[in-house]
Amino acid sequence: MARKQECIAMLLAGGQGSxxxxxTKKIAKPAVPYGGKYRIIDFPLSNCVxxxxxxxxxxxxxxxxxxxxxxxxxxxxxxxxxxGGVHILSPYQAIAGMQWYKGTANAIYQNINxxxxxxxxxxxxxxxxxxxxxxxxxxxxxxxxxxxxxxIAMMEVPWDEASRFGLMFTDDEGRITAFxxxxxxxxxxxxxxxxxxxxxxxLRQYLIDDEANPDSSNDFGKDVIPAMHNAGEKLYAxxxxxxxxxxxxxxxxxxxxxxxxxxxxxxxxxxxxxxxYSRNDARPPHYISPDADxxxxxxxxxxxxxxxxxxxxxxSNVTVEPGAKVxxxxxxxxxxxxxxxxxxxxxxxxxxxxxxxxxxxxxPPSGTEEASKWGITTIGEGLTVGKNAVIGADxxxxxxxxxxxxx
Amino acid sequence: xxxxxxLGMILSNSYDECVPELTAMRTMGSVPFAxxxxxxxxxxxxxxxxxxxxxxxxxxxxxxxxxxHVGSGRPWDLARKRDGLYLLPPFSVARGSGExxxxxxxxxxxxxxxxxxxxxLFTDSNIVCNIDYREIFDFHTAKNADITVACVRGVRPExxxxxxxxxxxxxxxxxxxxxxxxxxxxxxxxxxxxxRSLFVQIMAEADSRNYESVEKDLILPGVSRYRAYAYEIKxxxxxxxxxxxxxxxxxxxxxxxxxxxxxxxxxxVFTKLRDDAPTLYQPGCRVANSxxxxxxVIEGTVENSIVFRGARIARNAVVRNSIIMQGGxxxxxxxxxxxxxxxxxxxxxxxxxxxxxxxxFFI
Lengths: 407, 363
What we know:
- The structure holds 2 protein chains of 2 kinds.
- By secondary structure, chain A is α/β, with parallel strands linked by helices.
- Chain A contains 8 helices and 33 strands.
- A 7-stranded mixed β-sheet of chain A has the order 5-4-1-8-13-10-14, sandwiched between helices. In chain A, strands 16-19-22-25-28-31 form a 6-stranded parallel β-sheet, with no helix packed on it.
- In chain A, a hairpin with a 2-residue loop joins strand 6 (93-94) and strand 7 (97-98).
- By secondary structure, chain B is an alpha/beta fold.
- Chain B has 9 helices and 28 strands.
- In chain B, strand 4, helix 3 (64-70) and strand 5 form a beta-alpha-beta unit.
- In chain B, helix 4 (100-114) crosses helix 6 (196-208).
- Chain B is globular and about 65 Å long.
- The termini of chain B are far apart.
- The model of chain B has no long low-confidence stretch (mean pLDDT 92).
- The chains are: A alpha/beta, B alpha/beta.
- Chain A binds chain B through residues 35-37, 75-76, 260-261, 263, 269-270, 275-278, 280-290, 292, 294-301, 304, 313-315, and chain B through 34-37, 74-75, 254, 256, 259, 262-263, 268-271, 273, 275-283, 285, 287-295, 297, 302, 306-307, 310.
């Protein structure tokens, strides 16, 4: 019998991340590599343990193999526990039949039994695909202090991006007065971060009511939160002003990786007081050869660098042969860039091979008029780019490229 | 070899006195090596990669850092309900007057008596190699040996009491010598394989006759008494015997061939994790021929050096031919050459530390 917990976390990790295209063909978005050694889900998982939440349900649905394998027993995050710990919660069969998770709220609804086992006072509902460091215990303290039914983490986003988010208006005490879901002309820039703390008793009832409503899309943002708001429940915003990133697109994933090279970036991954844990291979330190030329770069264990690396992130076990050049790129684990090849403004997925003399990606045009046609080129997992092949800007490659081919 | 049938034993204090600088506060097994490892990682990883399921780590003194490092044995997959890792500190009351190795092996006796494995494999922890003990085991059984001793061919390491052997064409040891034999010779690296029952018998006798030296009282007479065979390690294998050899073996790691033999992907070397971020290289850095671990920030110049986890090399700092251990900091304008910086050492701005290649400066 599980012991009572004050607060447990439910991590929504079933999203496909379809705008990441080839990178999420075989893995769910939370399993996408980031920052040289992490996967996106390391952030919410590490936040949970760092915040003292030791019971975490991970809701998976889309391509869960890599994610299940990665989380395993939860040991890298100290979540292999006799009491609580991490649990993978996939859709299951019941007497009433088998149901996929229809929406975020339905995913939690289908796991009411799991949550009830811990008899928690509060439940944190977290998105598994955001990069941020946040102390949920402070947010929980605020939730308790205000006697809230639901607290939503909120941050101010740049005005020109506000229309991409769920926005909220608050009064002087931080109580939420109105919502706007991705409006064309935003009147506020206070955006929801997809981090919620609910008083479980309340949420439990709203989930049951939501499930009974045939018109509902069973989504937190669209259905459950508005229903709670309309019924006059106490909804508060919790202001967060640290680094937070939703890497929903190829461009934003590339950007978020390279941002780590910016000394002004507000995310310190070496902060020993708020460690981001991850599962890693046992590989030796990376070797930088006498021929190498490294400028701004993030380089991980097991790499061999003999070429030129500028403003790039190399994940573990990447090889950059002599005379190869990597700039403004993100190179995922195990990729090999052979001599004389150039990789620029690109992302290479795991174990890709760029043969000698090939060119992947293009520098952005200097004039602004053509910039709309330009973009980051992505090569899918395990693919080979043949000798002297040329791959232009803004392409997504899902098959091997022949020697000398020009795209 | 069925790993379940072999009990692994690692001596963690091997030749501590030969590297006094690095073992003042630790055992030989916990001496940091190659940017992120401790020397015992090689023995532990070799054991688990060879299928050994139960490993005893024998300690004698200074084992605080060793216990911190190996912990429950999780990184080596030895945190288990059945078998796994056993830390074996000394029984201080029972301590006899013998040399360190003899006393350590006597300490191992009770553990060995209770074990169920048919064979027992001993190794020291000052050996840098990635070998498959199953090959030694197959050799041992093929030769129908009583005892198999792993050896390397070369110049005898400068270790007190280490044995060198003469063997016939079949590998059977015909003679053993302590302390002599210069030039090309078959040097024992203190890796022994035998039946556990034989070990128990030998140690019972050593105890009743009050033997004091493993080398003089067991190895020298043993080669004529038993069917003793020498297994020659052909792969990369180095023995740490002094600060100088520690430095030289470290500097050898820039050789890609040696690295490939030591850090094989099919037999990984495991170590305690620290969860550092990857290393950040800042504009203006210059790095050549160096091994750099995770968690570092490199702003200055690093050449022919090994930089451990979490070290920082500031702008205008120059590090050449050196080893910077975990958490080291070389400040703006400082210069370090032919030096070994122990854990968490700070070199203040504009200071200049310099040793010689055959006499590294240690701090």
